[in-house]
Amino acid sequence: MITLALVGRGRWGRNYINTIKTLSSCKLPDKFIKTTDYKHLLIEKNIDGVIIATPASTHFQISKEFLEKGFNILIEKPMTTNYKDALELFKLARSKKNIVMVGHIYLYNPAFLEVKRIFNYLGKIKYITFEGMDYGPIRADISALWDWAPHDISMAIDLLGSLPVEVCGYGLSALRPNTKYYDMCSLKLKFPKDIFVFINVSWLSRVKKRNMVIVGEKATLVFDDTKKKKIILINNLGNKKTYYPSFSNKSPLTMEIVSFVDLIKNKGRTKSFSLKMGLDVVRVLEACDKSIQAHGKTIKID
Length: 302
Hints:
- By secondary structure, this protein is α/β, with parallel strands linked by helices.
- The chain has helices at 11-20, 59-68, 83-96, 110-118, 144-160, 252-265, 275-293, and strands spanning 2-7, 26-27, 33-34, 49-52, 73-76, 100-103, 125-135, 166-172, 184-191, 195-202, 204-216, 219-224, 231-235, 242-243, 299-300.
- The strands form two sheets. A nine-stranded mixed β-sheet has the order 14-13-12-11-7-10-9-8-15.
- The protein is globular.
């Protein structure tokens, strides 16, 4: 059985604790659940993997310490809060040959996996929109851009198979004026083949939204994670038939943890969303942040 450790026991950390209790392939001993007092874990010999679910601004330092000691790690999104640090972790992981995952949980969502399966049926993509909104939680160390947009950016990159070539964005700091702690953001990402992705995120919305709309030449797909029927496929041809594709009801967090455990068991030989995705998402987020600071200036991504 794989033995895990957890650094961070806040709201999301508790989700990890509760989910791991339901799994037979791994265990999380109480003595390996820590917050800021994690240093002694660095000398433990009986830990197979470490989950880092601390505030985003601490990800780089904590991850670096565990990587340098040779641990396999799962880092919550975003991987870091700037591209320089993300690149340093990426290079360190490669040199140490550690297993490193970044917790882009929507990539493990069964409904999203079904969206991927039928994506090519939609025909040539005209555009994609994302909305992610709720009232809180409001982070003290990052903006809504870095907290919410990683979900949408990771899904867009995964679906389209590339990074955007340029981005532009606008943000509003309502709670903390004149700071980079944006409470809402509106982004436009241009991908190869002139495919545009529009993203709106906010943590000050009294209306909860978590949806994606993909408009294709043959069909339109709606993925709404707040609904019971999460996927709606509307055929644009003929009689405009509507379908409700089915998918597994497994928890995305369960699937993410199982993937991490499988990677450890098989020494990285099984398929997983790579550390490269974490690096790429941070790269795009940083470009969006620069655009917002420059009042919507287009930032190219080479």
